[in-house]
Amino acid sequence: MSNNNKIPRLKGKDYSEEAARQRREFLESQTGASLSHTAHYSLPPESVSGNTENFIGVVQMPLGVAGPYQINGDHAQGEFYIPLATTEGTLVASYSRGMRVVSESGGVSVSVVEEFMQRAPLFEFATAREAIAFSQWLDARYDDIKKEAEKSSSVAKLQHIQKWVVANKLFTRFNYTTGDAAGQNMTGKATHMACQWILKTYDGAFTNFSLSGGIETDKKHSHMNLLHPRGKRVVAEAVIKRDILLDTMRADPVNMVKLRQRTILGSLLAGSAYNGPHSANGIASLFIATGQDEANVVESHTGLAFMELTDDGDLYYSVTLPSVICASYGGGTGLATQRECLEMLGCYGKGKAKKLAEIIAATVLAGDLSLAAAIVSDEWVSSHDQYGRNRP
After folding, report:
1. pLDDT surpassing 70 at residue 236
2. Rounded CA separation 240/340 (Å)
3. Keywords, A to Z (predicted)?
4. Which of 58, 110, 126, 269 would be 236's cystine partner, CB 3.0–4.6 Å?
């Protein structure tokens, strides 16, 4: 590679406007593209240290707000305005519509059931019996392992270790709570420290070791994370009054339930990770707005939607998201605009991650309700034609 083709770096000043400017000028000369819009931003370049490398500017994303939304959570309580970063016309309007109907029906109840973040080491032996013996040793020495793991962090707390013997291998999942951080790096460091102690202490002979055996399915969907949460398991539920649903969305609860019975079959046929209308839309828009790791939409969007008629003819709607990975502190949450969005929700800083998870699940429920009603009332296409007309 020619030195003339190398991306410019400024030693000791790489997170500076001068470094960003040099890189933009380099890229303009190399590609012929203009980066005039990319060059306009209000955040200090040094603030992105630890979030990106070779900084050249920002990508501006349209940010809308939905609400007001009445949320009756264990942690998120009150009326909220929800920031949604998206380029999809109709999305913010649809979520606002869902939030209005839920709020007028009394609001949405939300709870975080449990939360874990994992790293999944793999230990290999010559025989299956050796793998079984090691599994039993892990149980016997759990307290020591926990102590070693927690030396790396004041926040990460080892809760339990799941184990599966396959052939002559032991697949494990070290499950932690991680406070208000998403915790992937934190649990990786803690598990690495614990495993170094294990490898030195155990008397048996390992034939191979890997810090990840793949069973944590980091930034990948898996059935494992549907059953055993990676992140926060959150349940949102609401009873939607029949008259309000009919007046606002022109959808009858009976037809809503009929639709759900049929789309469940379609979801099974397709092998969908989520059987509701579109959990990823709300999650992705909120993740981008609030500085979450956008790749974690893959795990976070999976879940189960449930709908039934009440004895009064109203609509009970529930969304269970078993692996919502979100943070109110660390990562991208401290960046300028992302922090503002979190502060809009009252979710920036320590002690706010569960509140944010409840808001995310509540948002998914509102968006699902609105889209399902649009399908039932045959307004889905016309709504997109009205609000999503920005075509090239």
Report:
1. yes
2. 32
3. NADP, Oxidoreductase
4. 110
- Which one is catalytic: 17, 293, 340, 379? 293
31 within domain boundaries: yes
Catalytic (active site) residue 220: no
186 and 272 share one domain: no
Q: Which is the catalytic residue, given 192, 219, 221, 228?
A: 219
pLDDT for 379 equals 73
pLDDT confidence of residue 392: 52
Instruction: Decide if 384 is catalytic.
Output: yes
Active-site entry in 163, 169, 221, 384: 384
d(CA 134, CA 137): 5
Do 133 and 176 share a structural domain? yes
Please give the structure tokens belonging to residue 304: 């189960």
173-204 pLDDT, tens per residue?
Answer: 999 999 999 999 999 999 999 999 999 999 99
Q: Is 139 a catalytic residue?
A: no
Residue 164 inside a domain? The answer is: yes
Domain that holds residue 20: 10-60
Q: Which of 17, 25, 88, 379 is catalytic?
A: 88
| Interval 109-126: pLDDT, tens | 999 999 999 999 999 999
